[in-house]
Amino acid sequence: MDKYVYSCLYDILSSIDEIDDFISANRTYDYYCSSRILQRAIERNLEIIAEAMI
To answer: pTM score, two decimals?
Structure first.
């Protein structure tokens, strides 16, 4: 597999794992809406996923 493709897939998987960690603590949507730090963390990981898919 191409090194660049492997790197992109690794970034995607790492970001998905981080998002899963952020929301796996039985957090609710209300908690998400009230926590700007959690919002920013999840949004940043979504940006990383989007950039890696290009």
So the answer is: 0.85
